[in-house]
């Protein structure tokens, strides 16, 4: 089963987007220039197989722009193959689109205009590529995304799932009134929350998470003094647990 992870590498999200002429969107989520998308799927026993990343590009300016697409290999497994489509599909040996895509002011490319295809050729492991979109004749005015293709022969395990999530240490800890918890979720999640348990395993507090990454503010003022566990629960499954100390 294919899994998709979106890794935000900066929390200065809104400010970064405002400064860009172009913004890349992946499955409806705006990306920062240094964001990484990881696509994981299990290799079949035989037959043709590829991992595909789809993206849209938005023009944030008040003028129409002509946008080129470029593929930059970062780490490639031997014998694998990749190609991309940007208005047209280009063969594996081509790293730059030959024609630009015109994007009107404040408009976004339709679904399917850009796709990045990776053919592992039965090779297990990770290959990494960077895809850059830039305004024609203005290469410094660009947006980019790093895509990690992970082809595996093993079914997804609990450890695999846990690696897709991040739950930081609560701070301050010990806490008296409020704690903050940094978190990161994959783009494919449907529901997530942080739940606090006493040492008997009884839930005493829960707060829903909205957004793929950020800082959760959790009020613990009503809890009694003592030791608790807090857990990240995603799609009704506990994926990470940490300790929290409450002081009066």
Biggest pleated-sheet summary? 6 strands, mixed
Superfamily at the CATH H level of the largest domain?
Immunoglobulins
CATH class of the largest domain: Mainly Beta
Which class best fits the helix and strand makeup? mainly beta
Question: What percent of the residues sit in helical stretches (DSSP H or I)?
Answer: under 10%
Q: How many discrete domains?
A: 2
* N-to-C span: 47 Å
Reported CATH architecture of the largest domain: Sandwich
Rg to the nearest angstrom? Answer: 21 Å
Low-pLDDT segments, ≥5 res? 8-18
Percentage of residues in DSSP E strands: over 45%
Shape label: elongated
Q: Number of DSSP helices?
A: 2
What integer is the average pLDDT?
A: 84
Work out the oligomeric state of the chains in this entry: single chain
Helix-strand topology string: EHEEEEEEEEEEEHEEEEEEE
Would you report the number of β strands? 19
Main sheet: which strands, in order across?
Answer: 1-4-12-11-6-9
Per the CATH scheme, the topology name of the largest domain is Immunoglobulin-like
List the helices and strands and how they pair.
Blueprint: E1 3-7, H1 13-18, E2 22-26, E3 29-30, E4 36-42, E5 51-59, E6 65-75, E7 81-86, E8 88-90, E9 101-103, E10 114-119, E11 125-135, E12 138-152, H2 158-162, E13 166-167, E14 178-184, E15 192-197, E16 203-208, E17 213-219, E18 226-234, E19 237-246
Parallel strand pairs: 4-12
Antiparallel strand pairs: 1-4, 2-3, 2-5, 5-10, 6-9, 6-11, 7-8, 7-10, 11-12, 13-14, 14-17, 15-16, 15-18, 18-19
């Amino acid at each position: 089963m294919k899994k998709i992870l979106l890794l935000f590498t900066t929390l200065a999200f809104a400010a970064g987007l405002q400064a860009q002429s172009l913004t890349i969107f992946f499955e409806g989520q705006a990306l920062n220039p240094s964001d990484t998308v990881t696509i994981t799927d299990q290799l079949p026993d035989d037959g043709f197989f590829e991992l595909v990343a789809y993206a849209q590009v938005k023009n944030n300016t008040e003028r129409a722009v002509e946008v080129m697409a470029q593929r930059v290999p970062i780490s490639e497994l031997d014998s694998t193959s990749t190609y991309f489509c940007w208005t047209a599909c280009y063969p594996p040996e081509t790293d730059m689109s030959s024609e630009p895509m015109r994007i009107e002011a404040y408009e976004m490319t339709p679904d399917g205009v850009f796709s990045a295809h990776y053919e592992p050729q039965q090779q297990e492991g990770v290959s990494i590529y960077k895809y850059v979109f830039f305004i024609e004749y203005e290469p410094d005015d660009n947006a980019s995304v790093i895509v990690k293709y992970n082809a595996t022969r093993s079914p997804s395990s609990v450890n695999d799932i846990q690696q897709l999530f991040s739950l930081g240490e609560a701070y301050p800890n010990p806490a008296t009134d409020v704690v903050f918890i940094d978190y990161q979720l994959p783009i494919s999640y449907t529901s997530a929350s942080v739940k606090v348990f006493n040492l008997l395993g009884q839930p005493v507090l829960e707060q829903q998470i909205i957004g793929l990454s950020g800082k959760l503010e959790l009020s613990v003022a009503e809890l009694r003094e003592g030791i608790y566990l807090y857990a990240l629960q995603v799609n009704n499954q506990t994926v990470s647990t940490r300790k929290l100390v409450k002081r009066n």
